[in-house]
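Sequence in, structure out.
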Amino acid sequence: MVDLSRMEYLVGHKALETVANKRVLICGVGGVGSFVAEALCRSGLGYITLLDFDKVEPSNLNRQLMTTKDNIGIDKVEVLKNRIEEISDTKVDTIKTFIDGSFRLDKDYDYVVDCIDTLTAKFTLVKLCHEKGIPVLSSLGSARRLKPKNIRLTTLDKTRNDPLAKAFRNLVKKENYREKIEVVFVDTPAVKTGVVKEGTTNKEKYPLGSAIFVVGSVGLYIAEIVYERLIKEEK
Protein backbone atom coordinates (compact mmCIF):
# COMPACT_ATOMS: atom_id res chain seq x y z
CA MET A 1 0.00 0.00 0.00
CA VAL A 2 1.42 3.38 -1.02
CA ASP A 3 1.88 5.79 1.87
CA LEU A 4 -0.32 8.85 1.21
CA SER A 5 0.06 10.37 4.66
CA ARG A 6 1.44 13.62 3.26
CA MET A 7 -1.75 14.09 1.23
CA GLU A 8 -3.88 13.06 4.19
CA TYR A 9 -2.33 15.87 6.26
CA LEU A 10 -3.62 18.29 3.62
CA VAL A 11 -7.03 16.95 2.65
CA GLY A 12 -8.07 14.51 5.39
CA HIS A 13 -8.83 10.80 5.47
CA LYS A 14 -12.36 11.05 4.05
CA ALA A 15 -11.08 12.92 1.02
CA LEU A 16 -8.56 10.16 0.35
CA GLU A 17 -11.31 7.56 0.63
CA THR A 18 -13.39 9.57 -1.83
CA VAL A 19 -10.68 9.98 -4.47
CA ALA A 20 -9.75 6.29 -4.15
CA ASN A 21 -13.18 5.49 -5.62
CA LYS A 22 -12.99 7.97 -8.51
CA ARG A 23 -12.27 7.22 -12.16
CA VAL A 24 -10.64 9.72 -14.52
CA LEU A 25 -10.04 9.49 -18.27
CA ILE A 26 -6.97 11.30 -19.65
CA CYS A 27 -7.13 11.74 -23.43
CA GLY A 28 -3.68 12.50 -24.80
CA VAL A 29 -0.77 11.50 -22.58
CA GLY A 30 1.96 13.68 -24.04
CA GLY A 31 3.58 16.67 -22.38
CA VAL A 32 0.54 17.96 -20.50
CA GLY A 33 -1.40 14.72 -20.14
CA SER A 34 1.46 12.71 -18.65
CA PHE A 35 1.84 15.25 -15.84
CA VAL A 36 -1.92 15.30 -15.19
CA ALA A 37 -2.04 11.52 -14.96
CA GLU A 38 0.96 11.04 -12.70
CA ALA A 39 0.00 13.88 -10.34
CA LEU A 40 -3.50 12.46 -9.84
CA CYS A 41 -2.20 8.95 -9.29
CA ARG A 42 0.46 10.10 -6.82
CA SER A 43 -2.37 11.84 -4.93
CA GLY A 44 -4.52 8.77 -4.41
CA LEU A 45 -6.76 8.47 -7.48
CA GLY A 46 -8.30 5.02 -7.55
CA TYR A 47 -8.85 4.41 -11.26
CA ILE A 48 -7.45 6.00 -14.40
CA THR A 49 -7.86 5.35 -18.11
CA LEU A 50 -5.10 6.54 -20.45
CA LEU A 51 -6.02 7.18 -24.08
CA ASP A 52 -3.52 7.90 -26.86
CA PHE A 53 -2.67 6.39 -30.24
CA ASP A 54 0.99 7.44 -30.48
CA LYS A 55 4.27 5.71 -29.71
CA VAL A 56 7.20 7.32 -27.91
CA GLU A 57 9.45 9.26 -30.28
CA PRO A 58 12.88 10.83 -29.70
CA SER A 59 11.35 14.31 -29.89
CA ASN A 60 9.17 13.46 -26.86
CA LEU A 61 12.11 13.08 -24.49
CA ASN A 62 12.40 16.76 -23.62
CA ARG A 63 8.95 17.08 -22.04
CA GLN A 64 6.89 13.89 -21.70
CA LEU A 65 7.19 12.54 -18.19
CA MET A 66 7.41 8.79 -18.80
CA THR A 67 9.65 8.82 -21.87
CA THR A 68 13.21 7.49 -21.85
CA LYS A 69 15.74 6.46 -24.48
CA ASP A 70 14.86 2.85 -23.69
CA ASN A 71 11.14 3.07 -24.51
CA ILE A 72 11.28 4.82 -27.88
CA GLY A 73 8.89 3.07 -30.26
CA ILE A 74 6.62 1.70 -27.52
CA ASP A 75 2.98 2.79 -27.11
CA LYS A 76 2.79 5.85 -24.87
CA VAL A 77 -0.18 4.52 -22.92
CA GLU A 78 1.67 1.33 -22.03
CA VAL A 79 4.82 3.19 -21.00
CA LEU A 80 2.86 5.54 -18.76
CA LYS A 81 0.80 2.67 -17.33
CA ASN A 82 3.99 0.86 -16.32
CA ARG A 83 5.36 3.97 -14.67
CA ILE A 84 2.17 4.66 -12.72
CA GLU A 85 1.93 1.07 -11.51
CA GLU A 86 5.47 1.33 -10.14
CA ILE A 87 4.67 4.39 -8.01
CA SER A 88 1.02 4.15 -6.98
CA ASP A 89 -1.88 1.81 -6.26
CA THR A 90 -4.04 3.32 -9.01
CA LYS A 91 -5.76 0.79 -11.27
CA VAL A 92 -4.81 1.67 -14.85
CA ASP A 93 -6.67 0.94 -18.09
CA THR A 94 -5.35 1.89 -21.52
CA ILE A 95 -7.00 2.69 -24.82
CA LYS A 96 -4.89 3.00 -27.95
CA THR A 97 -7.09 4.84 -30.41
CA PHE A 98 -7.72 8.10 -32.23
CA ILE A 99 -10.94 9.83 -31.28
CA ASP A 100 -13.28 10.19 -34.26
CA GLY A 101 -17.02 10.03 -34.92
CA SER A 102 -17.16 6.34 -33.96
CA PHE A 103 -15.63 6.86 -30.51
CA ARG A 104 -17.82 6.15 -27.48
CA LEU A 105 -17.32 6.65 -23.75
CA ASP A 106 -17.77 3.10 -22.46
CA LYS A 107 -17.39 3.84 -18.74
CA ASP A 108 -18.96 6.20 -16.24
CA TYR A 109 -16.03 8.52 -15.62
CA ASP A 110 -16.07 11.02 -12.79
CA TYR A 111 -13.91 13.39 -14.82
CA VAL A 112 -12.40 13.62 -18.30
CA VAL A 113 -9.28 15.62 -19.13
CA ASP A 114 -8.74 16.54 -22.77
CA CYS A 115 -5.07 17.00 -23.69
CA ILE A 116 -5.55 16.30 -27.42
CA ASP A 117 -3.94 18.43 -30.13
CA THR A 118 -6.34 17.56 -32.97
CA LEU A 119 -9.30 19.96 -33.06
CA THR A 120 -11.92 17.58 -34.42
CA ALA A 121 -11.00 15.00 -31.80
CA LYS A 122 -11.17 17.62 -29.02
CA PHE A 123 -14.59 18.72 -30.19
CA THR A 124 -15.91 15.17 -30.49
CA LEU A 125 -14.72 14.33 -26.97
CA VAL A 126 -16.14 17.48 -25.38
CA LYS A 127 -19.53 16.95 -27.03
CA LEU A 128 -19.68 13.34 -25.84
CA CYS A 129 -18.89 14.40 -22.29
CA HIS A 130 -21.52 17.13 -22.33
CA GLU A 131 -24.10 14.69 -23.69
CA LYS A 132 -23.36 12.20 -20.91
CA GLY A 133 -23.12 14.84 -18.18
CA ILE A 134 -19.45 14.07 -17.45
CA PRO A 135 -17.29 17.00 -16.31
CA VAL A 136 -14.56 17.71 -18.89
CA LEU A 137 -11.63 20.11 -18.85
CA SER A 138 -9.66 20.88 -22.02
CA SER A 139 -6.01 21.87 -22.23
CA LEU A 140 -5.19 24.34 -24.98
CA GLY A 141 -1.88 25.41 -26.50
CA SER A 142 1.34 25.44 -24.48
CA ALA A 143 3.85 25.32 -27.34
CA ARG A 144 6.19 28.18 -28.28
CA ARG A 145 6.38 29.39 -24.69
CA LEU A 146 9.34 29.15 -22.34
CA LYS A 147 8.07 30.66 -19.09
CA PRO A 148 5.38 28.90 -16.98
CA LYS A 149 3.29 31.95 -16.16
CA ASN A 150 -0.24 33.27 -16.71
CA ILE A 151 -1.87 29.84 -16.78
CA ARG A 152 -5.62 30.43 -16.63
CA LEU A 153 -8.83 28.51 -16.01
CA THR A 154 -11.76 29.91 -18.01
CA THR A 155 -14.13 29.05 -20.84
CA LEU A 156 -13.15 28.78 -24.49
CA ASP A 157 -14.95 31.97 -25.50
CA LYS A 158 -12.77 34.02 -23.12
CA THR A 159 -9.37 32.78 -24.30
CA ARG A 160 -6.72 34.91 -26.01
CA ASN A 161 -3.05 34.78 -27.04
CA ASP A 162 -3.50 31.16 -28.11
CA PRO A 163 -3.59 30.05 -31.78
CA LEU A 164 -5.01 26.64 -30.83
CA ALA A 165 -7.78 28.28 -28.81
CA LYS A 166 -8.62 30.54 -31.75
CA ALA A 167 -8.86 27.61 -34.13
CA PHE A 168 -10.97 25.71 -31.59
CA ARG A 169 -13.31 28.70 -31.19
CA ASN A 170 -13.70 28.88 -34.96
CA LEU A 171 -14.60 25.18 -35.15
CA VAL A 172 -17.13 25.49 -32.33
CA LYS A 173 -18.69 28.51 -34.03
CA LYS A 174 -18.82 26.71 -37.37
CA GLU A 175 -20.60 23.79 -35.71
CA ASN A 176 -23.00 26.25 -34.02
CA TYR A 177 -22.20 24.65 -30.67
CA ARG A 178 -23.46 26.80 -27.82
CA GLU A 179 -22.40 24.87 -24.70
CA LYS A 180 -19.65 26.51 -22.65
CA ILE A 181 -16.35 24.64 -22.90
CA GLU A 182 -14.11 24.87 -19.84
CA VAL A 183 -10.42 25.19 -20.64
CA VAL A 184 -6.97 25.87 -19.25
CA PHE A 185 -4.75 28.06 -21.42
CA VAL A 186 -1.54 30.08 -21.25
CA ASP A 187 -2.38 33.79 -21.41
CA THR A 188 0.97 34.78 -22.89
CA PRO A 189 1.75 35.45 -26.57
CA ALA A 190 3.62 32.63 -28.27
CA VAL A 191 7.28 33.46 -28.93
CA LYS A 192 8.60 33.79 -32.47
CA THR A 193 12.05 32.37 -31.96
CA GLY A 194 13.93 29.21 -32.67
CA VAL A 195 15.69 27.52 -35.55
CA VAL A 196 13.98 27.72 -38.92
CA LYS A 197 14.52 24.55 -40.92
CA GLU A 198 15.78 24.93 -44.46
CA GLY A 199 13.06 24.58 -47.06
CA THR A 200 10.12 25.40 -44.79
CA THR A 201 7.37 27.70 -45.97
CA ASN A 202 6.63 31.05 -44.34
CA LYS A 203 3.68 29.47 -42.52
CA GLU A 204 6.07 26.93 -40.99
CA LYS A 205 8.66 29.56 -40.07
CA TYR A 206 8.12 29.22 -36.34
CA PRO A 207 7.82 25.50 -35.49
CA LEU A 208 5.94 24.32 -32.41
CA GLY A 209 8.77 24.11 -29.91
CA SER A 210 7.78 22.99 -26.41
CA ALA A 211 9.45 23.18 -23.00
CA ILE A 212 8.87 20.95 -20.00
CA PHE A 213 8.70 24.04 -17.77
CA VAL A 214 5.44 25.06 -19.44
CA VAL A 215 3.72 21.78 -20.33
CA GLY A 216 4.55 20.36 -16.90
CA SER A 217 3.17 23.43 -15.15
CA VAL A 218 -0.03 23.31 -17.20
CA GLY A 219 -0.45 19.61 -16.44
CA LEU A 220 0.05 20.07 -12.70
CA TYR A 221 -2.35 23.02 -12.68
CA ILE A 222 -5.03 20.90 -14.36
CA ALA A 223 -4.40 18.00 -11.98
CA GLU A 224 -4.91 20.30 -8.98
CA ILE A 225 -8.21 21.59 -10.37
CA VAL A 226 -9.52 18.09 -11.06
CA TYR A 227 -8.36 16.75 -7.70
CA GLU A 228 -10.01 19.58 -5.78
CA ARG A 229 -13.28 18.94 -7.60
CA LEU A 230 -13.15 15.19 -7.03
CA ILE A 231 -12.77 15.61 -3.25
CA LYS A 232 -14.80 18.82 -2.87
CA GLU A 233 -17.57 17.34 -0.73
CA GLU A 234 -15.11 15.83 1.73
CA LYS A 235 -12.81 18.80 2.45
